[in-house]
Amino acid sequence: MDEVIRFILELDKLKGVTRKTRPLGLDRYENSAEHSWQIAMFASALVPQFAPELDLNHVVAMLLVHDVGEIDTGDTIVFAEGGWEERKAAELAAVRRIFGLLPEPQASHFVALWEEFELGETADARFAKAIDRAMPALLNLANNGQSWRENGISYQRVVDRVGPEVAAGCPALWDWMAPRLKAAQDAGWFNIDAG
Amino acid sequence: MDEVIRFILELDKLKGVTRKTRPLGLDRYENSAEHSWQIAMFASALVPQFAPELDLNHVVAMLLVHDVGEIDTGDTIVFAEGGWEERKAAELAAVRRIFGLLPEPQASHFVALWEEFELGETADARFAKAIDRAMPALLNLANNGQSWRENGISYQRVVDRVGPEVAAGCPALWDWMAPRLKAAQDAGWFNIDAG
């Protein structure tokens, strides 16, 4: 029990890892713990209707652990250029340290969930990645493009970085988002100078 | 898809529902969204070793939805006296409204998860309630009794309000907590004037 308690208190630190998106109606940035909850609920709402062939429980398990490595590395906006492989290597070291607080086989089980999400090779993982990638864009669409404006992100950058993963993992969600992103571009929410 | 998007944006409000506990090392209060994530992870870490007979996926599903009604009602500290039934009736109306944003059968599925948790009659629900009740006490034990001190809570009140549910749902966890709560009392973390 000591190990589990130490583990769950270590996880508390994810509440202090801030992202670039603000919750709707709040001034502060969202953190990776509440984000993880929201996308687990998003998957739970989507799968029965739009991806019933998937294992929802497995998708939720991946989404709950997918950001835990940020306790050591911090969050990186999806639009960052370069350094992606180094960051993922650092996150892997982090999840090995953090999940390694638990006894086996649980430690390896959680690391395996994290790795499956990162690799994105299974249908469950592709769906999970689509949900994770889509959520901040949905918040931005509902929030006047908040994090896109604050970070000078262009329409094309969003389409390039968000579109392929959302379309691959949950085509119906991309069909919903694509025309709304275009409308946001027409409304001037994006940086038109950036590439 | 419109319904699911409206639902997940409505859930965003749970990030703005604050509790009485502060995340370790942070000045702000925790919110019910990040709390829901943490206890889902806590259950995931505990069940394989301490309650392998339970359906972990079902426990996690309950924990993810158990606080959603607070979007309309706000959080109430577990040590509040009276008014419990009225608050729970208001929360039920809230979860019917919020989950009712989704089509059937999903709306009823989520409401049923919330009701099972509240009733606490199944072994899965009793475990989920134990985890939910234990987590703020564990944070307090790691944080110099922060929310107990700020709210003038007595040792006996914690034992009475937290002990039975934790002991009923996860005896090994209560065995771990009980002597540590006693040590916290000896260390003077509790209000000795309150009942």
Secondary-structure element order of chain A, N to C = HHHHHHHHHH
- Beta-strand fraction estimate of chain A: under 5%
Protein chain pair with the most extensive contact, residues per chain: A-B, 52 and 52 residues
Mean pLDDT of chain A: 94
Terminal-residue CA separation of chain A: 52 Å
- Major sheet attributes of chain A: none
Helix content of chain A: 55-70%
Total strands of chain A:
0
Low-confidence stretches of chain A: none
Shape field of chain A: globular
Radius of gyration of chain A: 17 Å
Structural class of chain A: mainly alpha
- Summed up, the helix count of chain A is 10
Oligomer description: homodimer
Question: Helices, strands, pairings?
Answer:
Two copies of one chain form a homodimer.
Chain A (H helix, E strand, L loop, with lengths): L1 H10 L20 H19 L5 H10 L4 H4 L10 H16 L6 H14 L3 H19 L4 H6 L3 H15 L1 H16 L9
Please describe what this structure looks like.
2 copies of one chain form a homodimer. With 195 residues, chain A is mainly alpha-helical. Chain A contains 10 helices and no strands. The first copy, chain A, has helices at residues 2-11, 32-50, 56-65, 70-73, 84-99, 106-119, 123-141, 146-151, 155-169, 171-186. Chains A and B meet through helix 1, helix 2, helix 3, helix 6 and helix 7 of A and helix 1, helix 2, helix 3, helix 6 and helix 7 of B.
